[in-house]
Specification:
It is built from eleven helices and twelve strands. It is α/β, with parallel strands linked by helices. The protein is globular, with a radius of gyration of 21 Å.
Length: 330
């Protein structure tokens, strides 16, 4: 694995214009991902995961959304300042994305073959015969059979699992440097979910593509990812290796997420639930954004905003309990 990140996000800020002014949805988020690495971004709905991924793709609807600060460096090129014409060349070619619901992501009016071939014809400048051959190879690569017949079929003729495999084939057809997967298994049953995750792991090894896996499912993270970012209310609250996050979680929010996981051994009459809800973006202007839901909160948490403190190499946490020289709850 290379030390130079293929994607480096620095102090990203994305806001939406509302009746009360500018509302931050992603606030000062920084992370990087290396070639061949699988990075997980986890958190509840509304914490800023999907807005982060759409910001990287420059697909935030304008208006009301806008990237208001920071840098998104792809092999050193800042995508924040890139023109739309340049982004059209980058999307699908250098960075690709798999969306949550394949039925709404695939065009119902075009065949699977036409949709797969489009990116190859545009980005790789292939002739139709070569593009068709490459599209069929990609369908085989993602584990689909009868590919010649499937190329002539429409999305509604395929099952949910098949459509998701087609989406993965489409995203990987130009061999992108970075693949963003936004909740790619949410709409699928557990058997198909396991197959899709196994497929993504295999493709990551074969193609050495960096993957950013966006999910609320910590089970997916444990199975697939090497490093994890935990987001809450538009902020990164903890970052570390999978081993760090699962074996020594540091932020009270991460602890709550892990306590919420069902235990296969049973013994729990009721699943743990973190009290309260994720605050509306922009509703908390001072103090720690998790303080109102935190069982460890003390007076300072309501007035001051914690920095990201280094717990050890490659493990950081945004919590006063881990401030150097502060009080720890461990």
């Amino acid at each position: 694995m290379l030390n130079t990140p293929v994607l480096d996000v620095k102090q990203l800020k994305t806001s939406f214009l509302g009746d009360s002014g500018e509302i931050p949805a992603v606030d000062d988020v920084s992370f990087s991902v290396n070639k061949g690495e699988i990075l997980g971004i986890v958190g509840e709905s509304g914490c800023g995961k999907s807005v982060t991924s759409l910001s990287i793709m420059k697909l935030i609807p304008q208006p009301p959304g806008k990237i208001v600060g920071g840098e998104i460096l792809l092999d050193g090129e800042n995508l924040v300042t890139a023109e739309e014409k340049r982004m059209r060349k980058i999307r699908g070619n250098d960075i690709a994305m798999i969306f949550q619901e394949p039925m709404t992501s695939l065009n119902p009016l075009f065949t699977i073959g036409d949709q797969l071939m489009e990116a190859l014809l545009i980005h790789k400048k292939m002739d139709k015969k070569s593009a068709r051959s490459q599209a069929q190879e990609m369908l085989k690569l993602v584990g689909l059979a009868r590919v010649e017949k499937m190329m002539k079929e429409y999305p509604h003729q395929l099952s949910g699992g098949m459509r998701q495999r087609v989406m993965i084939a489409m995203a990987l057809s130009c061999h992108p440097k970075v693949l963003i997967a936004d909740e790619p298994t949410t709409a699928l049953d557990v058997t198909i979910q396991a197959q899709i995750l196994s497929l993504m792991r295999d493709l990551n090894k074969k193609l050495d593509t960096a993957i950013i896996m966006i999910t609320h499912d910590l089970g997916v993270v444990a199975e697939l990812c090497q490093r994890v970012i935990v987001m809450y209310s538009g902020k990164v609250v903890e970052e570390g290796t999978v081993e760090d996050i699962f074996n020594e979680p540091a932020h009270p929010y991460t602890l709550g997420l892990l306590k919420s996981l069902p235990d296969i051994r049973g013994g729990k009459e009721r699943l743990y639930s973190i009290p309260g809800n994720v605050p509306k973006p922009g509703s908390i202007t001072k103090g720690c954004r998790f303080a109102a839901r935190c069982e460890f909160a003390f007076e300072r948490c309501s007035s001051d905003h914690p920095e990201l403190y280094r717990k050890r190499d490659n493990h950081t946490v945004r919590c006063f309990l881990h401030e150097p020289g502060g009080v720890s709850h461990e």
